[in-house]
Amino acid sequence: MSAPHATAPWKGPIPSIFIDGEAGTTGLEIRERLAGRTDLLVRSIEADRRKDPAARRDLMAEVDLAILCLPDDAAREAVALSDTLGNSAPRILDASTAHRLADGWTFGFAELAPGQRAAIERATRVANPGCYSTGAIALLRPLVDAGLLPGDHPLSINAVSGYSGGGRSMIDAFEGGRGSAFELYGLGFGHKHLPEIERHAGLARRPIFIPSVGNFRQGMLVSVPVHLDILPGSPTPRDVEAALTAHYAAGGQVRVVPGNPTDRLEPEALNGTDAMELRVYGQAGGSQALLVARLDNLGKGASGAAVQNAGLMLGLG
Prior knowledge:
By secondary structure, the chain is of the alpha/beta class. Helices cover 31% and strands 20% of the residues. The chain is built from nine helices and 13 strands. It has helices at residues 25-34, 53-62, 72-83, 116-122, 131-145, 167-175, 194-201, 237-247, 299-313; strands spanning 16-20, 41-43, 65-68, 91-94, 106-107, 125-127, 156-162, 182-184, 208-214, 220-227, 254-256, 276-281, 288-295. A seven-stranded mixed beta sheet has the order 8-9-7-10-13-12-11. The chain has a six-stranded parallel beta sheet with strand order 2-1-3-4-6-5, sandwiched between helices. Helix 1 (25-34) links the parallel strand 1 (16-20) and strand 2. Helix 4 (116-122) packs across helix 9 and helix 5 runs parallel beside helix 7 (194-201).
């Protein structure tokens, strides 16, 4: 791995960014979120040269941060391309699955644990989390850290997302009128987000995770049912909510919202924002609880998290 360039001064008068893969769904969303900002510069390659390795390498050498919005193999190739630049290499933020468990990469969930935000600020290579894993980790990691949930406890994670998270072919199918009202998928029990959920939620046992997609463009609900009476100390729903509230008290894009049993949660309420809401449902003193995360799969679940991480990496807050 090549040595990173110094984080300051920048290569130009203000920090600069290259979005490698800016024509895809995540790249377009990132560019839209950065539009109009005067504290950084977004650089681009002419459309007919976006897949030209030499053009991409030349631009990487000129910018401070490269954001990779590419398939996994292409993201690995982009990192290898950056490695050839030595001290001129940019810092890298990868939105793919390729580096979320890789050595030398920092997981880009700023609210994960104390010190994670600072780790992202210092990092030269950051892996943006997946959308489903963002919701699941946000619910589970604080409970593991607080000792309420053993890492080897058997868990099931349910989730529904808008079709924009399924890639170009799924988007084309739904927007072309060929999508169904609701679909379960990942029925081989091997969804690509499972390894990062295990690692970064602090789990020692792989959870059952069966996601689904609905006939709406974006928005997401991630839910985890828990039998409280078989957990150590038999915590109450209020205990669980208190642990989440304490974990996220420092602020950020995650907030804990009191759950009301009359709620009717729909997944699109946070669309267009970078926020994530966490709720705990359960009867007072009851033996069961439902943990729910709501987010925009293109916001905190993808592009919004990338913009948050880019700001931290570039010292822009």
